[in-house]
């Protein structure tokens, strides 16, 4: 399992380690780690490799200078664009600059940076402009340089974090006024960071390699965040026993389907059935369908006449926000059943302080699955603000509403009531289409009905949902044009493989 550390935690580890090591040792180790990964990407005939190294004014630039010296000594044709610090540099950075100047690497005029970057067919670029300490947006000439690098076709290795990316949040530093480098690989130092895996991180960090710089394990605190992993939830998987029956596998009631929105609860219900729930009821706020011709095993009911204490509830798909829907939602939440809230159920809760207070006091398991705009409504802020710090938004919702929160998006964030965070690593742009959220909510409800605890159910659901999309893309079906209903058989396959490989 991969722990994730905040910038503050990384700084504390770095400070503690530096007290035990010779001056500059960590910078030298970082440079060597970056060079090692670069060498893996360079051709066997390294003498033909043209490597551009961007060395910024801070310690990240020192890491880049160390890497440049190693690559130069290894035989690559290294060109360094060095941007000097405004004041007196740290001693270890000054030493790194001296080693780079003493190596075969060549220094180019930073005043000609854009011309240098775009005027050569580079084999590789090493980004050491700015690390985790960046506080202001990158603009002006350095912003233009990053734009020129982003236009190149060669691999780009970022040292610690792609320049311009917030390591805590995955947002672009400075928002719309900032610029961020797009790397194909990131060698991140000391520990992994959440921002490399959510929001803009997945598009800009590329493949993430963690180098702990040989720091002793005892200096690392217990992590409050980590990447999602099968090991976090596999212990809940169960093989089906011969003596089981439909009642053994739980019941799910999907409540939604206002007039004109019947497709959403059908998608959620079909997913719940395909992922293992014993019985699934599609409960319509509007006129219920007689049956689902493609999935006649579903039992279609009137939501107003259903007993919400008899099944795990998936509330919200196609529910609408009418007064009748609000009344029905309140009735459902006053039951004692486990619940999954999605879509319009979340919007209704956002508009009612009474529902929010009741939700926070419910004793039954509860999973919320908002997308950023729904999370913004619940938090009383803009979606842009949510995306600027997705981990913080998910944590705030989990604490405020007393539920496990699944904040959907690139690098879905799952937050527990106690502040734990897990960032999901599966999934791809195929999921950016209508109905995939309904599929996820049905999967969450199905796992709860089968006896999974809410935390593990949420982790498993987002992982299975994402892996289903990944398999479809690997098999050549997407990501463009995949529909939500195509995920359902792929989820069924993934659930069965999980049970076969890990089930008790």
Chain-wise SSE layout:
Elements: E1 3-4, H1 7-18, H2 25-41, E2 50-55, H3 59-74, E3 77-82, H4 91-101, E4 106-108, H5 113-118, E5 124-128, H6 140-150, E6 156-159, E7 185-189, H7 201-204, E8 207-211, E9 225-227, E10 251-256, H8 263-274, E11 279-284, E12 299-302, E13 312-315, H9 323-333, E14 339-341, H10 343-350, H11 353-361, E15 366-368, H12 372-379, H13 383-388, H14 390-401, E16 404-407, E17 413-415, E18 421-423, H15 436-449, H16 454-474, H17 484-502
Helix pairs in contact: 2-3, 3-4, 8-15, 8-17, 10-12, 12-14, 15-16, 15-17, 16-17
What is the gist of this entry?
With 504 residues, the chain is an alpha/beta fold. 39% of the residues lie in helices and 15% in strands.
Write up what this structure looks like.
39% of the residues lie in helices and 15% in strands. It folds into 2 domains: 3-223, Rossmann fold; 230-502, Ribokinase (UDP-N-acetylmuramoyl-L-alanine:D-glutamate ligase). It has 17 helices and 18 strands. Helix 2 crosses helix 3 (59-74). Strand 5 (124-128), helix 6 (140-150) and strand 6 (156-159) form a beta-alpha-beta unit. The model has no long low-confidence stretch (mean pLDDT 97). It is α/β, with parallel strands linked by helices and 504 residues long.
What is the tally of helical segments? 17
Q: What's the name of the CATH homologous superfamily of the largest domain?
A: Ribokinase
Largest sheet: 11 strands, mixed
Distance between the termini: 21 Å
Low-confidence region ranges = none
Assembly category: single chain
Bin the helical content: 25-40%
| Strand line-up in the sheet with most strands | 1-9-18-17-16-15-14-13-10-11-12
CATH class of the largest domain: Alpha Beta
Q: Count up the domains.
A: 2
């Amino acid at each position: 399992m991969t722990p994730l550390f905040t910038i503050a935690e990384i700084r504390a580890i770095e400070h503690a380690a530096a007290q035990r090591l010779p001056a500059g040792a960590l910078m030298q180790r970082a440079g060597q780690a970056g060079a090692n990964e670069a060498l893996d990407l360079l051709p066997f005939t390294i003498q033909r490799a043209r490597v551009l190294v961007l060395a910024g004014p801070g310690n990240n630039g020192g890491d880049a200078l160390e890497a440049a010296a190693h690559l130069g000594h290894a035989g690559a044709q290294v060109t360094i664009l060095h941007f000097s610090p405004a004041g007196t540099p740290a001693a270890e950075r000054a030493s790194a600059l001296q080693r780079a100047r003493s190596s075969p690497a060549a220094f180019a005029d930073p005043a000609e940076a854009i011309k240098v970057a775009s005027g050569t067919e580079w084999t590789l670029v090493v980004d050491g402009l700015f690390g985790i300490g960046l506080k202001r947006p990158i603009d002006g000439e350095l912003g233009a340089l990053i734009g020129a690098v982003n236009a190149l076709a060669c691999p780009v290795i970022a040292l610690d974090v792609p320049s311009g990316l917030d390591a805590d949040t995955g947002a672009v530093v400075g928002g719309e006024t900032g610029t961020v480098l797009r790397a194909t690989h990131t060698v991140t130092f000391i520990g992994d960071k959440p921002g490399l895996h959510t929001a803009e991180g997945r598009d800009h960090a590329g493949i993430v390699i963690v180098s702990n710089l040989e720091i002793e394990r005892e200096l690392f605190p217990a992590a409050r965040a980590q990447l999602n992993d099968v090991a976090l939830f596999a212990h809940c998987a169960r093989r089906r026993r011969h003596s089981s029956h439909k009642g053994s596998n739980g019941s799910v009631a999907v409540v939604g389907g206002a007039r004109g929105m019947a497709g959403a609860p059908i998608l959620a219900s079909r997913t719940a059935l395909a992922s293992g729930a014993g019985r699934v009821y599609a409960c319509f706020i509007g006129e219920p369908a007689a049956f689902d011709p493609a999935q006649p095993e579903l039992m279609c009911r009137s939501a107003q006449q259903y007993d919400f204490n008899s099944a795990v509830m998936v509330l919200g798909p196609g529910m609408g926000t009418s007064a009748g829907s609000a009344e029905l939602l309140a009735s459902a939440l006053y039951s004692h059943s486990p619940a999954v809230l999605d879509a319009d159920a979340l919007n209704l809760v956002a508009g009612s302080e009474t529902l929010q207070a009741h939700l926070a006091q419910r004793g039954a398991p509860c999973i919320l699955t908002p997308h950023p705009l729904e999370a913004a409504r619940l938090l009383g802020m803009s979606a842009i603000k949510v995306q600027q710090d997705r981990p913080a938004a998910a944590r705030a919702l989990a604490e405020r509403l007393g539920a496990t929160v699944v904040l959907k998006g690139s690098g879905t964030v799952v937050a527990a009531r106690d502040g734990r965070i897990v960032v999901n690593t599966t999934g791809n742009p195929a999921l950016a289409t209508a109905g995939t959220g309904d599929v996820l909510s049905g999967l969450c409800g199905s796992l709860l009905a089968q006896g999974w605890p809410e935390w593990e159910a949420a982790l498993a659901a987002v992982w299975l949902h994402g892996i289903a999309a990944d398999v479809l893309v690997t098999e050549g079906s997407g990501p463009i044009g995949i529909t939500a209903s195509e995920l359902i058989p792929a989820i069924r396959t993934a659930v069965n493989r999980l049970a076969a490989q890990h089930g008790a």
